[in-house]
Amino acid sequence: MKRFILVSTREHDLAAADEVRGVLAAGGLREDQMQVISLARGPLGPIDELDLDNCAGVILGGSPFNASDDPGKKSNLQKRCETDLDALLDVLVAEDFPFLGACYGVGTLGVHQGGIIDRQFGEPVGTSRIRVLDAGRKDPLLAGLPDEFDAFVGHKEAVSVLPAGAVLLADSAACPVQMFRIKSNLYATQFHPELDPAGLAQRIMVYRDAGYFPPHEAQELHDRALASQVDWPELILRNFVDRYGKTDRQAPPEI
């Protein structure tokens, strides 16, 4: 199996390490099957040095950053991360290279492809009922999932207008774009397929002062996360790994 690349923009060590754990566990990957690139620790560097010929796919984790943040208030780190990701997506989209972005990936891929990302459809930290649409039922990354399933969310922004040519795969009552595809092999989910209850509980405490909820609610949200039953979303990551790690790239069925 070729290796996968996980690109992380998280500065907080605990959150970054747990994201790696979650992606490995959900994807059924060993540590030696995934390379982790931390943009918080340094620039991405030349894209050709990533050796994409020996890479099965690129995964972009979540982030404390938002694509719709006021440009004048973005930190230098956020600006550098966005520049690096934009350059990476230039190559990945041109080659229709396997990509799966979780949460932050919706905004990153959405902006890159000309969609509109704003604060209309944010969701509070917790679970959201995801609905698989007709196109999603035909897509290999959603194979084996039920028509509706619960997933962990917590986001200030979302896609309000899909990029031209994007295929909408899933939505929810509160958020009209929960998953979409660009071309045949580039995907983004608004929800977190890598998160389990323990991971969300930890993330709540790490980001308790980041504006996702009033800090005094952190313990209640933490306890609620631990009691959650969320099992299906990880299958999306497993399908991504199985599809691109073990087989040649193929176009999904015609919609």
Automatic annotation (TrEMBL):
Name by which UniProt lists this protein: GMP synthase (Glutamine-hydrolyzing)
UniProt keyword list: Ligase
Domain Glutamine amidotransferase: 51-197
CDD domains, A to Z: GATase1_1
InterPro entries recorded: ChyE-like, Class_I_gatase-like, GATASE
Coiled coil is among the record's keywords: no
Listed SUPFAM superfamilies: Class I glutamine amidotransferase-like
UniProt GO MF annotations: GMP synthase (glutamine-hydrolyzing) activity
EC number(s) given by UniProt: 6.3.5.2
Pfam families (UniProt xref): GATase (PF00117)
